[in-house]
Amino acid sequence: MKLLLLLSLVAFSLVETKYLVCYFSSWATYRPDAGKFTIEDNDPDLCTHLVYAFAGLGWNNEIRVLDPYNDLCENYGKCGYNRFTNLTLQNPNLKTTLGVGGWNEGSTKYSEMAADPAKRKTFVDSSIKLLKEHNFDGLDMDWEYPTQRGGKPEDYVNYISLMKELYEALHAEGMILTAAVSAGKATIDPAYNIPELSKYIDILHLMTYDLHGSWEPYTHHHSLLYPHPEDTGDNLYLNQDFAVNYWIEKGAPKDKLVMGIPLYGRTFRLKNDQDTGIYAEAPGPGGAGPYTREAGFMGYNEICEFQAKEPWTVVHDPALNEPYAYYIPNNNFWVGYEDVDSVGVKAQYTLDQGIAGAMVWSVETDDFHGTCHGSPFPLLHKIKATLGN
Ligand SMILES: *[C@@H]1O[C@H](CO)[C@@H](O)[C@H](O)[C@H]1NC(C)=O
């Protein structure tokens, strides 16, 4: 009898669906040529949760629609929110949420709103109203970050009050609350009361990427799973394994934690064409990609299309689980990124750790046309298959 019970428990845990939380950058509809990605380019069967990035916060403390023309139907708009939540008509198990915040929103307004109970109520009430109007299944709080970037020390306490009030109001309406949270120890320590936050959250999206980049004077991989052999000092904290274990050690429940995997690379311009490894001197970012058009950043679709056209050197350093590549004729360009193998290793890591699954930033920089791989979304398919969904 005991054995039967044990066997059925094992069988049950084997069929349990892992979370695959996918961010969607709504502004990708403005990208040129093959980089343009609209709502209907999403595959509603790949992810368990799709997050619409982003809404913002108004000075009146209400949630704010950032691009009314693209997001809303009014005034001959493109109905982005409604088309997005309508993706659940194709997959009733899919949850769609609205992300509020993001890097560009900064922290100051959020800090002021969270400090005042009346302002928090305005934000919570306006959020519920907007989510219901557009059939979202919940809210994803992307305040980057409490206590940082214009925030104040009291955010540590006020953020929890905000999340508690949001969680209770959302759950009363049958909706969920998730949050994108930092993977950097230097931010985690001042920003998050992890045991309290864990009570008022459905899923914690660990942003285990952008751990290095062209703001530093040397090349490094921005989403490495384990430390590089040459890492010392605080750089020993800047890897995915550290961040996952640190969140768990500080009290995050494994069944609410998902690890972020970037579908993009961070780029550099090498100083010296003979010095091309990790910790090579790099005085600045690599040039902008044709679709994402931002120096220092390149989508996997752009990276793989470049590699198909030009003789890039792709390096699989045995000390790393993820590739980097460089091409000297393109102004000493260097990029650390993820490929099909590395995202598989990372999805497997989430299984081995027993956490709730994976998150990606973001769907529209996968090879979504299948230009390089012959079939669309090779990275997302690999993650989904590895998670066993
Ligand atoms: C969403 O689906 C509903 C039900 O089929 C439909 O009436 C509505 O027009 C759709 N909205 C958009 C913006 O496509």
UniProtKB/TrEMBL annotation:
GO BP, one annotated term: polysaccharide catabolic process
Catalytic reaction annotation: Random endo-hydrolysis of N-acetyl-beta-D-glucosaminide (1->4)-beta-linkages in chitin and chitodextrins
Position of the signal peptide: 1-17
Domain GH18 positions: 18-389
Name of a matching Pfam family: Glyco_hydro_18
UniProt feature coiled coil, ranges: none
Keyword annotations from UniProtKB, A to Z: Carbohydrate metabolism, Chitin degradation, Chitin-binding, Disulfide bond, Glycosidase, Hydrolase, Polysaccharide degradation, Signal
InterPro entries: Chitinase_II/V-like_cat, Chitinase_insertion_sf, GH, Glyco_hydro18_cat, Glyco_hydro_18_chit_AS, Glycosyl_Hydrlase_18
EC class: hydrolase
Listed GO CC annotations: extracellular region
Superkingdom: Eukaryota
tRNA processing as UniProt keyword: no
Enzyme nomenclature, EC number: 3.2.1.14
GO terms, molecular function: chitin binding; endochitinase activity
Family assignment from sequence similarity: Belongs to the glycosyl hydrolase 18 family. Chitinase class II subfamily.
Protein name (Swiss-Prot/TrEMBL): chitinase
Organism this protein belongs to: Palaemon carinicauda (Ridgetail white prawn)
